[in-house]
């Protein structure tokens, strides 16, 4: 579907409202179902370095997933706004003792300390948030382009698997796409695994 800024904004507004209307009980149920589904998934079997986001604005809560990854002895990383190159993300190691500070959007993130950073192409999996997705793996984000710019650094033959996480109510008939949008090969909801390979 061809994109226009107003069409993308309307869709973003509509789907953000949908997920914000989910009750705390439904949010918790979805978060637990996602963690359970992924912790027993062969997808994680030989993967060590895994980037996950912290939920914001009604996004699918990843904290139960993060705890499950820690129990599996995986190394977890969080996205951090790049302090020097605007519009890009860095990935910083995250454990139960990591201190978090709100960024300019109010999202908690660790300090970007050099010894805790990992280059994006060394990650095995990047779990990304999204606002809306369609049956072709097209992803509509919040509009800042942070993930699109950062993921464009991955070489075409990268071993890193980029997987979107979403509530099922975030699926739409068609996402209006722009030239810079990077479709996802996989999107996981609490009840379904969409594989677009």
TrEMBL record:
SUPFAM superfamilies according to UniProt: NagB/RpiA/CoA transferase-like (SSF100950)
Enzyme class (EC, first level): ligase
Domain of life per record: Bacteria
Annotated Gene3D superfamilies: NagB/RpiA/CoA transferase-like
Cofactor: Mg(2+)
Record-listed E.C. numbers: 6.3.3.2
InterPro entries: FTHF_cligase (IPR002698), FTHF_cligase-like_sf (IPR024185), NagB/RpiA_transferase-like (IPR037171)
Pfam families xref list: 5-FTHF_cyc-lig
KW Lyase (keyword) present: no
Keywords recorded for this protein, A-Z: ATP-binding, Ligase, Magnesium, Metal-binding, Nucleotide-binding
Listed GO MF terms: 5-formyltetrahydrofolate cyclo-ligase activity
Coiled-coil region: none
Reaction(s) catalysed by this chain's protein: (6S)-5-formyl-5,6,7,8-tetrahydrofolate + ATP = (6R)-5,10-methenyltetrahydrofolate + ADP + phosphate
Keyword Ligase applies: yes
Similarity comment: Belongs to the 5-formyltetrahydrofolate cyclo-ligase family.
Identification of the protein by name: 5-formyltetrahydrofolate cyclo-ligase
